[in-house]
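Hi support team,

I submitted a single chain yesterday and got back a structure, but I'm not sure I'm reading the token output correctly. Could someone confirm the output below corresponds to the sequence I sent? I've pasted both exactly as they appear in my results page.

Thanks,
R.
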Amino acid sequence: MIPQRIIQYLERSRVPFDRRPHPKAITAQALAASLHVSGFEVAKTVMLQARDRLWMCVVSAADTVNLDRFSRLTGASQLRLAEESEFAHLFPECEIGAEPPFGLLYGLPVVVDAHLRDAGRLLFRAGSHAEALEMRFDDFMNLEAPLLGDIVHDRAGRRAPVDLGVGAPA
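Hi R., thanks for writing in. Yes, this is the structure output for that exact sequence:
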């Protein structure tokens, strides 16, 4: 079940969204499979620890964050994947591993991979391993005003996004 804090955040902000119940899925790829969609249609939140702060990255379930690209885009240094023990306390109402990509709600800067805009809609976990949220990409961008850029490893046959580095820095 999606925590009430997240639902209230979206409702207060007048952001339309759909709730998508599904069989329990721990990974983003398992979420995609449980909803019978491609991993490129599901967004996941990846937490990075930099020298001076935590960052939220939003990338497709099928992608991995390229730390060099992320560093060039944000100026963050000494980057590594954050351990759950370093951020779980920031999401007390959420199941561990189901952190939503709402940095404004949790006081964290957000960076979104530019490839996600191709999908038009975002489908992601929002505090629960048994229910997901779906919303328009543009609504998410307007709500969160994240930094947008090419932050994932290249995949064969995929074109590079255009207009990189758009958005408000955190």
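A quick pointer for reading it: Confidence is low (pLDDT under 50) at residues 162-166. Let us know if anything else looks off.

Best,
Support desk
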